[in-house]
Recover the amino acids of this structure.
């Protein structure tokens, strides 16, 4: 009898988030639904290998953890899957993280300045009848 080796299917590259901020930790998962086990996965950014080979003996995704530390980390990611079936290396879809909008502190600063000016105006308005008018009458 001959061992039957099934070719792998195109792996799917995914992440729990598509938007990331600088300094955020993210994960990438790569899974080929079909093919004889074990399956070996390798992750890439652009065309640069970013992980050692991850060998899976069960039908489960290979996962890597990344820290988005600079703008260059927002490039295109892919993964590659292969098994013992000859000449059957498959590459995943491309995946890109997009930069999440960071909340602007300028809006909070403007609101704070307006509130401070409003408090000064209220304080001045309250000071007129209690301090300024009596002082003005006393000088007459």
């Amino acid at each position: 009898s001959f061992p039957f080796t099934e070719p792998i299917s195109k792996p799917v590259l995914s992440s729990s988030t598509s938007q990331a901020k600088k300094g955020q930790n993210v994960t990438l998962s790569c899974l080929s639904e079909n093919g004889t086990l074990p399956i070996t996965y390798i992750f890439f950014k652009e065309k640069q290998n970013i992980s050692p080979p991850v060998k899976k003996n069960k039908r489960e995704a290979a996962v890597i953890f990344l820290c988005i530390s600079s703008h260059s980390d927002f490039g295109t990611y892919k993964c590659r899957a292969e098994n013992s079936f000859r000449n059957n290396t498959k590459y995943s879809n491309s995946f890109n993280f997009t930069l999440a909008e960071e909340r602007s502190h300028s809006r909070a600063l403007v609101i704070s300045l307006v509130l401070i000016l409003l408090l000064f105006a209220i304080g001045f308005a309250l000071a007129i009848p209690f301090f300024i008018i009596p002082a003005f009458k006393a000088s007459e």
